[in-house]
Design brief:
homodimer; alpha/beta; Aspartate Aminotransferase, domain 2; Aspartate Aminotransferase, domain 1; 2 domains; 7-stranded mixed beta sheet; two-stranded parallel ribbon; 13 strands; 39% helix; globular
Chain lengths: 411, 411
């Protein structure tokens, strides 16, 4: 172990894995700003601004668009523990590791979990989801948008309408895709969405933007129990079962983020500053421009990898724009290549889990790192590292192919 | 609402309330440092350093000394939801709002909650706690160390020994006192403690240091269920009931913070940097020096307030070193004084809740703000503001009395 009294001095890295990635320096700067008291009028105004900004990022009019103070997983659990009453049937279509996480969390919330699965590297046709909803009649359908474990993005347009037809609420985990791929929450009728900052939003992990609509509000308000110690004497608890978490109780978070400002936790000031800056930067760039930037980087990265003679993983028609799965060539040892990239070039790429462990690398092009220079640097470094590890790609082919994509794109 | 696209530009404040308070500028700077990947060897080394540093801050040898990624309340809930099995009897001695919070969270964890209460402004004699433990035979005793709602600090030396004699686990919420008042976790036999950064540790809210000993480890490991999606096929779940939260599941957090590095959430990088810096600064100052700094500020502040003709709230023998309760004089309107201090002087002091709402102000002297200049500035500003609001203190008496305390103290 190093000396814990040494100055903090993180080595410079280009983080081209599935996230976290390098934060935008403007976001890092925002976190260094002076703190404010949680009920300081200047701070509650920032809270309101954050709500407005994330309505833009989520493409929603939802009043309840706020931050959960924790990593992306806290946002997922806040939605699920508030939406799921013990005994509710919850349907989870699983196409990667994070589908299993939805099941896991739902089960801990007391759900009767039903799932359908598809091979890692594929997604579900809408019909299969519809059939499962008809069969199981779930109260909640929980789906991942982009599952970084497989690099696949599940098409969600249409799922919301099916859920409404069957009186189910649709929750979506958009941690890995928000602001990198299109996710029009209202247009697609998604009832609840949560995310994190550390992927396409180019911030640090530790704050989870969440948005829920009036259908979710109606369900969770039935379960509202104002906390003992601050409840007024005439407070009437809801007639639904109490939410199993206090920290992640959406109705109490709503009271804290509303004009009532009813005390709950102490809002994580610096993380809120970061979240505000992330959204401000994303909306200033404009969502369509941002989606296009991620899409071209994906085309350039995949073109470069193919030109190097590498095989891509999974159904390329449904691949996430911001993460690419690459099959590890048989002649090399995957971890040796990752270590070489990190030690010689300061570049991080991702390994994988479960059925894909040791079989694919995952290369991210997202947020602040999603730009031509990084695609080219990463491909060049990978080529050199593969060569030292026994796999020889055509010299320069990867970089040239990626450059050609950017040339065509005008970029 | 302001323009959410404006640059972040928080007004300068001197935060002399019950927390959050101004962060040490070195902590703000730490948060602006570049991110690292969660399994980057440089980052996992920082995680190990954080564990070592907080062992120092908690005065413990506990292996499981780590951060929960959320505000102080997340740390409380992580301990309670992991330690409390549904049906367990939990005893909570309540001496302020945060005792009610312990009951509230315990109940959501499925506990059979028993409580004893004492008037706000007082604490419990050891004998009363012992009698309640004998009567209720709890599995867990949950206590607040310093309850900012009343400004009282419960003496805890001896409670741990009683709990062991009756086979109960002792959890303590040290959010408001850690590194400002002595809390020798091992010497006092406290089994689990959680805290936050935003009080005496002079950091931002959003990270919760937690330490648990081998007694807690033994209980929670019985409840270990490795998450679906990453569990090896031969994983054997514990024979205890599954923990109701995934995000706040201590056994999974232990696996993530151990050499296993089993993926759970993505550690909140910037908040970990902040937590590391907070602990490093506290230990460099030295805990005894830090406790003394808080104690003298408390004596100076209380001497100043008394000299102004103000009455202090609660049992002064058991007052927290870092927060002082002041009875609002009948002739003034409490909120008008708080607004005047904020608007004219940029100084924030606290209001109160529940039975004390409108009756007392709470003035903090903690962490980075716990220093002579702030005690003097705050007293001078309060004197002027009170005068404008109809309460005339002897001119200069508050500042002079506080200065005299520092003079006696050598400083």
């Amino acid at each position: 172990m190093g000396d814990p009294f040494d100055d903090l001095n993180p080595p410079p890295r280009l983080m081209m894995g599935p996230g976290p990635i390098n934060a935008d320096p403007r976001v890092e700067r925002a976190m260094a700003m002076p703190l404010l008291g949680q009920f300081d009028p200047a701070f509650t105004e920032y809270m309101n601004e954050v709500m407005a900004l994330y309505r833009g990022v989520f493409q929603t009019e939802n009043r309840w668009t706020l931050l959960v103070d924790g990593t992306a997983r806290a946002g997922i659990e806040a939605c699920l523990v508030s939406m799921i009453e013990p005994g509710d049937v919850v349907l989870v279509p699983i196409f990667g590791r994070f589908g299993h996480l939805m099941c896991e969390i739902s089960r801990r919330c007391g759900a009767d979990v039903r799932s359908i699965e598809t091979d890692w590297g594929t997604v579900f046709p809408l019909e299969r989801i519809e059939a499962a909803i008809k069969q199981h009649q779930p109260k909640v359908v929980a789906m991942v948008h982009g599952d970084t474990s497989t690099t696949m993005a599940q098409p969600l347009d249409g799922v919301g309408a099916i859920c409404r037809a069957h009186d189910a609420l649709l929750y979506c985990d958009a941690t890995a895709t928000l602001s990198g791929m299109d996710l029009p929450v209202d247009a697609w009728q998604i009832d609840a969405v949560s995310a994190g900052l550390q992927k396409c939003l180019a911030g640090p992990p530790g704050s989870a933007p969440v948005t829920v609509n009036a259908r979710v509000e109606a369900k969770v308000l039935r379960r509202k129990h104002i906390e003992q110690g601050i409840a007024p004497p005439d407070a009437e608890p809801g007639d639904g079962p109490i939410i199993r978490s206090n920290y992640l109780d959406l109705p109490m978070l709503m009271d804290y983020w509303s004009e009532k400002r009813l005390n709950h936790h102490t809002e994580a000031t610096s993380m809120l500053y970061a979240a505000r800056e992330c959204a401000r930067i994303a909306l200033k760039e404009g969502l369509p421009a941002r989606f296009a930037r991620h899409a071209v980087a994906s085309r350039a990265m995949t073109a470069g990898l193919r030109a190097m003679g590498l095989a891509l993983f999974g159904d390329q028609a449904n691949k996430m724009a911001n993460v690419t799965g690459v099959v590890i060539p048989e002649v090399v040892e995957g971890e040796a290549v990752r270590s070489g990239l990190l030690e010689d070039f300061g570049i991080e790429i991702g390994t994988s889990f479960g059925p894909l462990a040791g079989k694919i690398w995952r290369i991210g092009t997202m947020g602040y790192n999603c730009r031509k220079q990084n695609v080219l640097l990463c491909l060049g470094a990978l080529e050199a590292t593969l060569r030292r590890n026994g796999f020889t790609a055509p010299a320069g082919a990867g970089v040239d192919a990626a450059m050609a994509v950017y040339d065509e794109d005008g970029g």
